[in-house]
Amino acid sequence: MSLSMTPMQDAMTVKISEALRPTALEIFNDSHLHSHHKAMQGSTSKETHFRVSIVSPAFQSKMQPARHRMVYSLLKEEMAQDGGIHALQLRTRTPEEEDRIKAQEEADRGTPVQDLAAK
């Protein structure tokens, strides 16, 4: 039996996946960027700061604060434990919102820039 090198991230993945059934889930461990902060001195955890992007139909008809509360509720144990999650940055979208944003980004990239040198 091998022990995971990312138990906090693994727990987050399982809890979010089971509860929210996301169509997309990305978890970024940014702990190394914050290890020098005073609040992190003495902490042996390498999993304290995360950015999480969740696309889920469970967010339908909910405002961002309610969506974030859903995620905080799922991860309350991980946030409460010593050496647990210290900071959690969330991006929560419905599949429709994600599709609309991606379509807009595609349209923005496809917009031709006027060639001033040709004039």
TrEMBL record:
It comes from Tothia fuscella. Belongs to the BolA/IbaG family. One of its GO terms (biological process) is [4Fe-4S] cluster assembly. Coiled coil: none annotated. Pfam families: BolA. The lineage of its organism: Eukaryota, Fungi, Dikarya, Ascomycota, Pezizomycotina. Residues 90-119 are annotated as: Disordered. Residues 93-109 have a biased composition (Basic and acidic residues). This is Bola-like protein. Gene3D superfamilies: BolA-like.
